[in-house]
Design brief:
This protein is mostly helical. It is built from 11 helices and no strands.
Length: 199
């Protein structure tokens, strides 16, 4: 009887360790942007445990913000950002927590990931000059879509450091970027803005 009990205890701990190890592997896959693989592993994990793991599923969802590249990364990141902002509006997620989630991604090596974070921060009312380097990089080194996003973000920022970048964006060969810059420059008014717009 005692032997069976010990075997049952040992079996329990081995299963617990196995599940914990599998959870960590799924988290690692998710953090690396391997969303499809992490979801497949999560499905297999749920089949083994017989239940969903809300915390683990949340981790996978947040990894959508780290999805690299333009296609389909752009749409995936935008959707994740929209869901998080909606959670803030509905009171399901604290604004400070959401800001923290976006700020963590400002150090990403992927420009698209950083730009999504910047957009989310601006929509949450977080306006700081630490966002400028990302916007500048997107404006000069980003593809057509990221350059336009950067110009639109600059147009909505209300900090002095944005004016010179808006001026440069105004002369962009991309007409959509130039139009977005006009919107931002008009906010400032004054002779300098008038001079740029009359050129």
């Amino acid at each position: 009887m005692k032997k069976k009990f010990l075997i049952a205890i040992l079996s329990f701990f081995l299963s617990f360790y196995s599940y914990s190890s599998e959870k960590e592997e799924i988290k690692t896959l998710a953090s690396q942007g391997a969303i499809k693989q992490s979801l497949l592993r999560y499905r297999a994990y749920c089949s083994k445990t017989g239940a969903h793991d809300p915390a683990l599923l949340r981790t996978i969802f947040l990894s959508f913000l780290n999805y690299p590249g333009s296609k389909p990364g752009y749409a995936i990141r935008k959707s994740a950002m929209g869901i998080l902002l909606k959670e803030v509006l509905q009171g399901k997620l604290k604004k400070e927590e959401c800001i923290s989630l976006f700020k963590e991604r400002l150090s990403s090596s992927d420009l698209g990931v950083k730009m999504t974070a910047v957009e989310g921060l601006i929509l949450l009312g977080y306006e700081n000059k630490e966002l400028i380097p990302v916007l500048k990089e997107a404006l000069y080194k980003g593809d057509v879509v990221l350059s336009l996003d950067a110009a639109l973000c600059l147009a909505n920022l209300k900090i002095p450091e944005t004016f010179s970048l808006l001026e440069e964006a105004f002369h962009s060969s991309n007409p959509f970027v130039a139009i977005a810059a006009v919107k931002g420059i008009k906010k400032y008014g004054g002779k300098r803005a008038e001079k740029i717009l009359l050129e």
